[in-house]
Amino acid sequence: MSAVLRGSDLPLAEAFDLALVDLDGVAYKGHEPIVHAAHGLTSARERGLRLVFVTNNASREPGSVSDQLTSLDIPAEPADVMTAAQACARLLADHVAPGARVLVVGGAGLVTAVTEAGYEVVTSADDRPDAVAQGFDPSLGWKDLAEAAYAVAAGAAYVVSNRDLSLPTARGFAPGNGALVGAVVAATGVEPSSAGKPSPAMYAMAVERVGAERPLVVGDRLDTDLAGARSGGYPGLHVLTGVNSARDDVLAHPGERPDFIGADLRSLLEPHPLPVVGDDGWWTCREASARVVGDQLEVQAGPHGSDPVDLVRAACSAAWAHVDAGGTLDPASVPEMAVPAESDV
């Protein structure tokens, strides 16, 4: 399977009718705003783009998430939020019938979602739950994970909100739900079913909720946000404000490649140029160029003042075409290609 960058002569906010926007690393980082996020999203809305915020975080209620977004100058309602807790509750139906007992190991958002889906929430493996639903909550401790392990080992179905190993915070990257799930898996040997990204289930639920015809996934993680976009057949925009870098884009395997790349959420307001290849093997995106010679990536940045993302686009096109044709690429030849944040203009 190959995957290539797309171009758009229209700003993305006009080319698509719905943006499925990740939260941590895209709209905010922990409790702190991300530069240009509010401007990019509110301006995109003004151009007619609908927004649904799709998060692998299952610890919080949709209303809590929308309140935080609103406090960061990104007005939102609970109906604008789709959480992995909601997807996890829906996934339970594949394993147990409504009314079944479910041991919830997670935060208030997951408890609410499982309850609203018609299940009886219990708090101990001694209650003989039919299933375990696990999601991230910063207050989880050894006793909670032990209860999950006891229940799973006794035969309860095991469903988790997501398997993200890390999550971005204002202080750096902290263990995510996947790290905590790993403790239960290590204790029981049982692999769970996962509701969150990279499963495209939440994207499909959000598209159905809105009735969108031209949805766009917006995320910062290749292995969840963009992999989910690829697996669901949705175009994906990678913004360079979170987990994965421009260098990661160049080295991404086809199932995790983005369709579009932007420095931040202002990229929703811009056309996206499509790199083209010349007879000399150079891929050019406006004033930036890249090619692969042997297994070495060579890049030529544009002049000072040109868009640094153009170099990323050219490098991705050159590297992906080379690898998809059966070539190899030396990772050491791929530079960082940092895209600095700039002040609003």
Automatic annotation (TrEMBL):
The lineage of its organism: Bacteria, Bacillati, Actinomycetota, Actinomycetes, Micrococcales. PANTHER family: 4-NITROPHENYLPHOSPHATASE-RELATED, D-GLYCEROL 3-PHOSPHATE PHOSPHATASE. It comes from Sanguibacter keddieii (strain ATCC 51767 / DSM 10542 / NCFB 3025 / ST-74). GO terms for molecular function: phosphatase activity. GO terms for cellular component: cytoplasm. Pfam families: GNAT_like, Hydrolase_6, Hydrolase_like. This is Predicted sugar phosphatase of HAD superfamily. Residues 287-331 form the GCN5-related N-acetyltransferase-like domain.
